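Researcher: Let's try something more involved. This one mixes different molecule types, so please make sure each is placed in the same coordinate frame as the others.
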Amino acid sequence: MSTRSIPEALIHEIRERIDIVDIVSSYLPLKRSGANHQGLCPFHSEKTPSFNVNSSRQIFHCFGCGEGGNVYSFLMKIEGLSFPDAVRRLAEKVGLTVPDEAMSPAEEKRREETELLLRINGAAAEFYHQLLLEGDEGKVARRYLRQRGYDAESVRQFQLGFAPERWEALARHLQEKGFPVEAVRDRLGLTRAGKEGRGDYDLFRGRLMIPIYDVRGGVVALGGRVLDDSLPKYINSPESPVYHKGRVLYGLHTAREAMRRLGCGIVVEGYFDQMALHRNGFPHAVATCGTALTPDHARLLKRYTDRLLLLFDQDKAGRQAALRAMEVMLPEGLSVAVVELTDGDDPDSFLVRHGAEAMAKRLEAAKPVIEYYMDLTLEQCGDGVEAQARAAEAIADKLRLLKSDIERDLYLRTLSARTGIDAALLGRRTAVAVAQSETPPPAPRLPVPTPRPAVRPPASGKLERAQKTMLRMFLEGQIAATELASDDLEALFPDSGWRRIAVAALALAAEERPLVDGLQERLEPDDLALLAALLMEAHEALLDEPERLLVDCRQVLLKHHAEARRRQLPELIRAAAAAGDTGAEAELLQELQQLLKKKL
Ligand code: CTP
Ligand code: MN
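Model: All components are placed in one shared frame. Result:
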């Protein structure tokens, strides 16, 4: 796997030379508090700090949202990087190089191509930008922009450009720069093949050009707007290896920091809306690029904020887009509100007509999206009893999208008050919708039972504590590896996460390597977050005698294991009998008898 192809020793060495406190501090202010440094968590919004960085262990953990890990996890999460890229980024900082052989040849090729495509797009954006800034050809575009209130500074800020009314302006320019025509034409679609031996011709002609960046500021695509009323109004780069419009948000590379700082983001539909907001002091706005919001967009936004304002065009299409966005964003656990403007406006025209202060007021007055949906649905359904009932049903169904049952309950009461329909009745409807949306995975075909399938209910409370205590004692060197190694790990660690950590730690112990440190190189991000949580929590064994505590933990876990197995066995025996596997049946029966005997 690519994430593990960089040598462990190098990953370790880079980490050794970096202080996680420095790295985190460059993103948010930290204050020392006891053994840790604390700050406001950048991964969820909060008013009192529950985000902890531990300098001696070089890990972080948020007691509020559960995010955690080491310096690489932090960088991956906050910058949206892959693991190898996070390693590279930090390697650069400390003057080490990650050898490229660490990548597979296929990965290497993909990376090279991505770099080339971004360079080509970047060169195209710069070419168009210069043509807009100077020269006669760009005059029309400069006039157009001036009318919309854009001066040279804004043109630079957004790297706006102008594609002249010529057939081969960009094609020639890129060729002169030595870029391969296949990449320009076939991979990026910036040019198209001419007919009958003629050269490739430009996709964008006579348009105002808007570069579209990824989170790291690479130009992944370009959008081109006509300078008059002709159609199509916009042409965009086609999808390419570097551009998937369902995964890109215009302006995110500059907006993300502001989103974090302000604890909220604004989503608009148009490029000009986004630019207008930025110019008017709303730096936390991003635009979709001519597509509906996708679950990928929602997850991308969630890295930076969990509160979003939908600021869409005030027309039928905009209202529908807001409702579609609701379906996508609520299931991701985002809090979403809809901003309403004067009818017929879009954010850009509203700002031109009413200014920034009026906009700020509208943003403040944003309505939670479910309330917006409720208002819209009840307004539109009219007064008939039947129509009202249908509307209430539709709304009760929609409440399934809410993650919090408290919120759901509040809306049910509101809906009941507004329609006069019994809240309990509406609540049953919502409950059914919730159950239906949680479609269970298709039932597996009944397999011939193996003697030891690892099906177990998730452990909680007491079990969770026992697993964590044992693991922590082991990691702190309070109990020996043999205490764990000699047992059935599935019984001692019913939760797969803790079990994976135990397995990795035992392997490290066998290699006589430091445990906590080694684990950081070996665990996947989710498990690393678990580990960070474990290490940050108060540890009871320090107060107690480890040996006695170990006995208690084991007893709890082994007893639970035996009981779970005993409950599971009758079903397995029936299945074995049904499948005609008499060998397995006998074995399972014997196991059950032994378990029952032990219990007596
Ligand atoms: N769009 C597109 N192709 C079109 C029309 C629109 O890709 N033919 C996308 C663009 O990303 C555009 C967005 O949909 O920014 C919203 O469209 P619209 O509201 O018409 O554009 P604005 O950005 O508001 O542009 P303007 O204010 O200049 O009309
Ligand atoms: Mn507009």
